[in-house]
Specification:
The chain contains 12 helices and 10 strands. By secondary structure, the chain is of the alpha/beta class. It has one domain: NADP-dependent oxidoreductase domain (TIM Barrel, Alpha-Beta Barrel), CATH 3.20.20.100. Helix 1 packs parallel to helix 11 and helix 5 runs parallel beside helix 6. The N and C termini lie far apart (48 Å).
């Protein structure tokens, strides 16, 4: 495993982050989830990402139990705040001071830790003054409940505004967590240049495009039994954008490219996002320990220009690149 600095800070994280969205506390039994965490640790992964909204807080609980016997100083534990949790009452969501202060306490209890290494605004909140949100984050840092602050799926202008306020309050934003893959490249035009200017890194999710880039889905054929495309709990909805014959045909053209690079298609996809110098880590989920053992081999891989050009020729025309696709939930009624 290799490690990279996160933003303009002295904080290092593993190139592969283990994330438990859509798995722990919902799609995967707790015992298997713990086995996946153990496999991640055995593979050299030290960075773990979750959120209070995942499985309505259950994912944090599962991760906390799986990591409780590990040396805390050797881990980097991330979580996020924004989405509705608990009974989903009128103050159980957003980035108000009330919700942030209550949410961090709940997350720390479930994760069985005194602090998180990175606390992230899961989305941008149009209904709370940004000054209120950033002041709450500043106070959490000063209280020692979070060491660093990041955001997720913020636009370039939102990142710029948040960065300026954080600087005035005596801390810095060091990361953004966006979706990024060969098929979803919306951050490249605006978010990445702004982040490079301001000193933020990307921690990217869905580098395999919900599993589509693994090559297991074929045009004109039923999805494999037990795959995300057949999951009625939410996985099938997340993946449907990629399930057209045009996209699946393009993805199959990556197979010989992966073979040339000595990688599986999933490994190639993860390695591809890590070629972007603004990407500090790629988040990898798993429903089985062996998935981690295979995909972690993407860490440290350097793809030459020829391979990168062939990837673009195969599916570059299919990628979503519109910066406007980076967006947060619409404003709630005041």
């Amino acid at each position: 495993m290799e490690f990279r600095y996160l933003g303009n800070s002295g904080f290092k994280i593993s190139e592969i982050t283990f994330g438990n969205w859509l798995t722990h506390g919902s799609q995967v039994e707790n015992e298997v989830a713990t086995q996946c965490v153990r496999a991640a640790l055995d593979a050299g992964i030290s960075t773990f990402d979750t959120a209070d909204v995942y499985a309505n807080t259950a994912a944090e609980t599962v991760l906390g139990k799986a990591l409780r016997d590990e040396r805390r100083e050797s881990l980097e534990i991330f979580t996020k705040v924004f989405g509705p949790t608990g009974p989903k009452g009128h103050n159980d969501l957003g980035l108000s001071r009330k919700h942030i202060m209550e949410a961090i306490n709940g997350s720390l209890t479930r994760l069985q830790t005194d602090y998180v290494d990175l606390y992230q605004a899961h989305r941008y909140d149009y209904d709370t003054p940004l000054e209120e949100t950033m002041q709450a984050f500043a106070d959490i840092v000063r209280q020692g409940k979070a060491l660093y602050i990041g955001v997720s799926e913020w636009t370039a202008s939102q990142i710029r505004d948040g960065h300026a306020l954080a600087k005035d309050l005596g801390f810095q934003l060091i990361s953004n967590q966006p979706q990024y893959s060969m098929l979803w490249r919306v951050i490249e035009a605006e978010v990445v240049p702004t982040s490079e200017e301001l000193g933020l890194s990307q921690i990217v999710w869905s580098p395999i495009a919900q599993g589509v880039l693994s090559g297991k889905y074929h045009p004109g054929k039923p999805a494999p039994e037990g795959s995300r495309a057949t999951d009625s709990k939410g996985g099938s909805k997340m993946i449907e954008r990629w399930m057209s014959n045009e996209v699946l045909t393009g993805v199959q053209q990556l197979k010989p490219i992966a073979e040339e690079a000595g990688l599986t298609m999933a490994q190639l996809s993860i390695a591809w996002v890590l070629q972007n110098p603004n990407v500090a880590s790629a988040i990898m989920g798993a429903s089985r320990p062996e998935q981690i053992e295979k995909n972690v081999a993407a860490a440290g891989v350097k793809l030459d220009a020829g391979i990168m050009d062939k990837i673009d020729a195969a599916i570059g025309h299919l990628a979503e690149r519109d910066p406007a696709q980076t967006k947060s939930p619409a404003s709630r009624e005041r």
